[in-house]
Specification:
Strand content: 15-25%
Largest sheet: 5 strands, mixed
Number of domains: 2
CATH class of the largest domain: Alpha Beta
Distance between the termini: 41 Å
Number of helices: 12
Order of helices and strands: HHEHEHEHEEEHEHEHEEHHHEH
Number of strands: 11
Radius of gyration: 19 Å
CATH architecture of the largest domain: 3-Layer(aba) Sandwich
Shape: globular
CATH superfamily of the largest domain: Periplasmic binding protein-like II
């Protein structure tokens, strides 16, 4: 993404945030804090809305939606959003690029849905058969991560495949039209592709990835809005608990809010089994392993010590 296109993106993101701001923002802008919340594919907002987690707020929220982690990271870097959900691999990529953010909450999930997909009629049966083939994914994404892990597990090197960097919608189209051999992606795109019969899982992330993702926040937002961020994080944690006690209701709400079939929403939700966890030594060690892997394959140029990229002053208890 060029500098000019980034500026255009940030301008659009700010405009989107203003357009999506909750109605109370305009009338209370002078008296209430405003949290600029980024989201990926509407998942976080859908979770909070379905669980009633946006009731009784002492602040206002401006939502901005992004199709993947890379543009969300750009928005965080530009200050267009204060906080947003991001996977372990794209967080490494963003931090290595100088984005001033920290992970304030961590969750673990089953990594099955972060996967390398192929067309249902593809002759490919294993990761080893990806040699010489083309794989579409987002640069620095968890899709990129699982693609590299998959080929590495088969004894291949990054140069043994042709990775094409495409946004999710373009990557899906490229796969279905046959212009690439595989697509490395994540939920809900994996479940949606499976349910629609557009793709099948060739290699899942289970056993290859730690299944970590985060709620990240900019250093500026942490300094200025810590109580707001703590409240928001705890609302997300409580909404997650509610969702697993109300699978059918939540899946239906998720499908409606983000615009995917109910069966895809339920599939991706049930198999993820996402749980918020304390940022402990194991989380830090797993994140360091991801950073070291990205350094090993040349995606980041300098070693990255991840310890300083966590703010452990936030709680997921309650």
């Amino acid at each position: 993404m060029t500098f000019s296109s980034r500026r255009q993106f940030v301008t659009q993101a700010l405009g989107t945030a203003a357009a999506l701001a909750l109605p109370a923002v305009a009338s209370h802008a002078q008296s209430r804090p405003v949290l600029k919340a980024g989201d990926q594919k509407g998942g976080l907002r859908a979770l909070l809305e379905a669980a009633g987690g946006l009731e009784g707020l002492g602040y206002d929220i401006q939502w901005s939606e992004f199709p993947a982690a890379a543009p969300l990271a750009e928005a965080l870097n530009a200050g267009a959003v204060d906080s947003g959900p991001i996977g372990d691999a794209p967080l490494i990529f963003a931090l290595a690029a100088g984005t001033r953010v920290k992970a304030i909450g961590a969750n673990r999930s089953d990594a099955y849905g972060t996967a390398v997909l192929v067309r249902p009629d593809s002759p490919l049966k294993s990761a080893a058969e990806l040699k010489g083939r083309s794989i579409a994914t987002n640069r620095g994404s968890i899709g990129h991560y699982v693609a590299l892990k998959a080929i590495g597990s088969a004894g291949l090197q990054p140069e043994d495949v042709n990775i094409r960097f495409l946004a999710p919608a373009d990557a899906k189209l490229a796969l279905t039209q046959g212009s690439v051999d595989a697509w490395a992606t994540w939920e809900p795109y994996t479940a949606l592709a499976e349910v629609s019969k557009h793709a099948r899982v060739l290699v899942s992330g289970r056993g290859l990835l730690p299944g970590l993702s985060y709620l990240a926040a900019t250093d500026g937002a942490i300094a200025a809005k810590r109580p707001v961020l703590q409240d928001f994080l705890q609302r997300v944690v409580k909404a997650q608990r509610w969702s697993y006690d109300n699978v059918d209701a939540y899946s239906a709400a998720l499908a409606r809010i983000i615009g995917i079939p109910p069966e895809a929403a339920k599939l991706q939700f049930e198999r993820r089994q996402q749980k918020w966890v304390a940022i402990d030594a194991q989380v830090v060690a797993d994140q360091q392993a991801t950073a070291d892997f990205y350094r090993q394959v040349g995606l980041i140029k300098q070693p990255l010590d991840v310890k300083g990229t966590f703010d452990t002053g936030f709680s997921v208890a309650g």
